[in-house]
Design brief:
Layout: E1 3-9, E2 18-24, H1 33-46, E3 69-70, E4 73-74, E5 96-100, E6 109-111, E7 114-115, H2 118-127, H3 147-157, H4 164-168, H5 175-186, H6 195-208, H7 219-223, H8 231-246
Parallel strand pairs: 1-5
Antiparallel strand pairs: 1-2, 3-4, 3-5, 6-7
Helix pairs in contact: 2-5, 2-6, 3-5, 5-6, 5-8, 6-8
Bound molecules: iron/sulfur cluster and FE2/S2 (inorganic) cluster (FES).
Amino acid sequence: MRLTLHVWRQPAAAAEGRFVTYDAPEISPDMSFLEMLDVVNERLILKGEDPIAFDHDCREGICGTCGMVINGAPHGPRRATTACQLHMRSIKEGDTITIEPWRASAFPVVKDLVVNRGGFDRIIAAGGFISAPTGSAPDGNAIPVPKADADLAMDAAACIGCGACVAACPNASAMLFTAAKVSHLGLLPQGQPERESRVLAMVAQMDAEGFGTCTNHYECEAACPKSISVEFIARMNRDYLKASLAHRPRAAGGGGTG
Ligand code: SF4
Ligand code: FES
């Protein structure tokens, strides 16, 4: 395959960025999208040029590290597919591909296609934990969990924290990510002690990070490589409302969560 790439190049966070055009010949349709970028980078290095910076780790769709907007779509044209799982056979011979970073003020560009997703880490740190002692693996039936709740919690836990939902949303909202993280713990018995404080703290942190609010465009669900449902946003909103009305902060030295 021979492709033309328009790639966002930005040498540093404070530097001005611009699109640079690259010719990409001899690309195998069996390569992943990231392998295609590896080949382009090897050629840039051989020419003494700066390779294109992009985030990646597992390259099997489970870590959430990769992320770039490919022809206007976060993670590219295939539904429920991360950029690392996208193969060049999904792209037509001779195509021109525009590649740019997530665009959201809460995800500032670090370099080229790499953005700082520390805002997500801080949302998790605000409440994405349980206080129940975990210890060694408990007996499977020690804490009964209804099958429907277990399945729903598992669906929410599939979120890999990639940020495509933010990139796809016209408001750069992090509601789908936050809702998934609130829900996978809030649906299970072990997550109940902090259920109220968790949703209040994580939503407050989400707002403090400068993510926008949800106005029901549903672009997040469409772009999500793990098909996280917007139903989780509705669930988080219900939890948030209940917690806002009922929550009593835990008193020093003990006390309940209201
Ligand atoms: S909800 Fe989907 S798009 Fe958003 S961070 Fe999680 S996996 Fe990525
Ligand atoms: S590199 Fe891990 S999900 Fe893409």
